[in-house]
Structure to design on (131 residues):
């Protein structure tokens, strides 16, 4: 989907911020490989999801045990703030995944895996009457 000019500018700024956070994580966290993001710019920044990818599930477990997830989330939030993006709930916006899990569940097809994560997000049901 093609972004309008405003959304494209926001996305470019998000990319710049996340590139800095990614470079830092590569040096600080063992097993960290890369990160990516997705967002619906009609509901931004609430829809922003950053996926941090590690080599293996074991590396994610070790990173969590060492409480490096806080470093990663704080760094992502700090870099986003520098480009004017305020994420209210960074814990909800940042997710962890692994190359190993993608290979196991999606034969290494990241676009398919990431699209699946988007569709799993629950729509906001506030204000809807139940029938």
């Amino acid at each position: 989907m093609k972004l309008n000019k405003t959304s494209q500018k926001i996305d470019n700024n998000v990319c710049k911020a996340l590139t800095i956070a990614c470079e830092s994580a590569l040096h600080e966290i063992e097993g960290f490989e890369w990160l990516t993001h997705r967002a619906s710019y009609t509901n931004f920044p609430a829809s922003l999801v950053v996926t941090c990818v590690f080599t293996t599930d074991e590396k994610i477990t070790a990173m969590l045990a060492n409480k490096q997830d806080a470093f990663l989330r704080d760094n992502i939030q700090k870099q986003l703030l520098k480009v004017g993006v305020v994420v209210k709930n960074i814990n909800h916006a940042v997710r962890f995944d692994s190359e190993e899990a993608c290979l196991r569940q999606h034969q290494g097809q990241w676009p398919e895996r990431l699209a699946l994560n988007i569709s799993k997000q629950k729509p906001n049901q506030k204000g809807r009457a139940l029938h």
